Amino acid sequence: MRRTTVLAGVLVATALLAALVLRQVLTTIFLALTVVVVARPLYRRLLNLGIQRHVASAITTLAVFVAVVVVAAPIGFILYARRGDIEDAIETLPDDLTLAYGGASYTVETADVQTYLTDIVSDVAIEVLGNAPQLVLLLTLFTVVVFGVLLGQRQVGKAVDAIVPAGYERVYAALKQRTVHTLQAIYVLQLATGIATFVVAVPVFYVLGYEYYVTLAVICGLLQFFPIIGPSVVLAVLAGYHLAHGDVADAIAIIGLGGVLIAILPDAVVRPYLARAAADMPATLYFVGFIGGLLSLGPVGVIAGPLVVALLAEAVELLAEELRNGQQSELPDSADPPQ
Predict the structure, then answer these.
(1) Are 142 and 86 in a shared domain?
(2) CB 184 within 8 A of CB 38
(3) SS3 of 109, please?
(4) Partners of 97 in the β-ladder
(5) Which residues partner with 106 through β-bridges?
(6) Are residue 86 and residue 181 in the same domain, yes or no?
(7) Using one digit for the tens of pLDDT, what is the confidence trace for 122-180?
(8) Which of 65, 180, 227, 336 has the greatest CB tally within 10 Å of its CB?
(9) Range(s) of the domain holding residue 255
């Protein structure tokens, strides 16, 4: 047995043991590793400017830390301050959505997701207040992991490259590229679109006279992570509410103005500039991964679900290509004319 094979087995065994021992913080470590993949371009740019690795790692980690706090803190505060209103809004969402294309239609059940989101919002205040010390500790761990992986990624990369069997370098490269594209699509594309939606939605809801305009804007921003549903659901619910009370003008205003500025404009402006991040990430695959991951793993499934589905799709493509190449290599022998 080759020495490399034995060491690879030792690596797998110790990784499983570490996962068992560290199972309480696996979610934090997983999120930190995925964030490192997205933050590497900033790290490399700093290195290209002549900055030392330790300093570049520290600056990149600080940028990631600030980004996490800036994004998560307002969302957490809104969920805590307006959790009752958000629960009411979630409960008004339809239990299923019918997607029609041509003569065919498909119904997506969303009742379980609706119940799950309601449970998350209802428990957020207790979790945030009761687990504040634990959250600070997890955030510290997240920061340390990001810094450590950025600083030692060369050694880690060399170790991984060394255990890839000969002849499988292209498979490894394809899976690695799909991972990077998927995480970019989740963190960069979806997050940027959600932030843009929030920024646009705040003044729109304010001008239209809604009392909880910031809360509605946060919900619209979060719903950008649902590529098929999106903030249009909020606009449809508000329009239905106005129509039920006979306010036809308000319903037309929220559908017309909100539909253009909130539902369409962020996608039309942000996504073209971040088109590379959306590569190899169809909306249907993202939707399946998002829903499945959310229901199976909880909040971390928002990242893990689409990533697993994307890697599965890449593996299917690699296998299909391998089979095609194998058939093509056999064609000349079978197609030779008889002598």
Answers:
(1) yes
(2) yes
(3) strand
(4) 108
(5) 99
(6) no
(7) 665 555 555 667 777 888 888 888 898 888 877 777 767 777 777 777 888 888 888 88
(8) 227
(9) 167-322
pLDDT in tens, 225-284: 776 677 888 888 888 878 877 888 888 998 988 888 888 888 778 876 766 555 556 667
In a domain, 88, yes or no: yes
Torsion angle (degrees, nearest 10) of CA 319, 322, 327, 329: -170
186 by Cβ neighbours in 10 Å (0-12 / 13-18 / 19+) ranks as: buried
pTM for the whole structure: 0.68
Domain total for the chain? 2
Q: In terms of C-beta density within 10 A (0-12 exposed, 13-18 middle, 19 or more buried), how is residue 324 classed?
A: exposed
Q: Which two tokens stand for residue 144?
A: 């340390």
Dist CA 283 CA 189 (whole Å)? 12
Question: Could you give the dihedral angle defined by the CA atoms of residues 155, 160, 164 and 169, in that order, rounded to the nearest 10 degrees?
Answer: -80
Residues 6+ apart with CB under 8 A from 40: 150, 153
Report which of 24, 54, 57 is spatially closest to residue 40, judged by C-alpha positions: 57
3-class DSSP state of 99: strand
Model confidence pLDDT, tens digit, residues 304-318: 888 888 888 888 888
For the record, the structure tokens of 34 come out as 């995925």
